[in-house]
Amino acid sequence: MSKPSDVPIPPKDTINTNLSPATEQIMLRKFGKPGALTKNCSSPTGRFVRRVKSGVDVGPFKVSGLDFAVESLRQLFAEVEHQHPLVFKEVKTEGMLCVRHRRSNPMRFSNHSWGAAIDLFFGRAVVPQGTHLAHRGIVMLCRFSTATGGTGAASSAAIRSTLCTSSSRRRRS
Question: What is the pLDDT of residues 18-27, one digit of tens each?
Fold first, then answer.
């Protein structure tokens, strides 16, 4: 897997089974406003800050994010390391906690604002948003995310990991 290969995003019903996205409304109700609604990353503020874990080693790298999302990611990568050591070795991140608005809607918070989303990639860079492709390693990681209850880099209560649920959003773009 040393050279990332881009593959078509699998059909939504094959990678996101039993997952549902954590909506902004749910996140606001559960954790409150995470900080300023800015274009670029800003510092987290408010009551949810006490739930943020910073600089936690989740295996292939360190992250900062919502406590249970970080723990879910750590568990996911422990399993990946055991079953697919090369995927574990080559996965990279563009970040997890970044209080900002959505790139597509400046009136709404990104789930990165709560540290409940993570951008993962293989090779030199993430696949651009709107592209109907994903790195093969991301598709492999989606299977782990689904197996661990959707806690991984894509979605729901723990991590709306950009890996699985945003892959399906890209398909609809």
Answer: 767 788 999 9
Q: Which two tokens stand for residue 23?
A: 């909506």
The rounded distance, in Å, linking the Cα atoms of 164 and 150 is: 9
Q: For residue 36, give both structure tokens.
A: 């300023």
| CA of residue 59 relative to chain centroid, distance | 15
| Full DSSP string of the chain | --S--EEEPPPHHHH-TT-----HHHHHHHH---S---SS-B---SGGGGGEEEEEE-SSSEEEEEHHHHHHHHHHHHHHHHH-HHHHHH-EEEES--B-EETTEEEEE-GGGGT---EEESTTSPPPTT-SEEEHHHHHHHHHHHHTTS-SSB-SSS-B-TTTHHHHHHHH-
- Look up residue 49 and give its two tokens: 């800050």
pTM for the whole thing? 0.80
* Torsion angle, alpha carbons of 147, 151, 155, 159, to 10: -160
143-169 pLDDT per residue, tens: 776 555 443 333 332 323 444 444 334
Query: Are 100 and 51 contacting, i.e. CB atoms less than 8 angstroms apart?
Result: no
Delimit the domains of the chain by residue range. Answer: 21-172
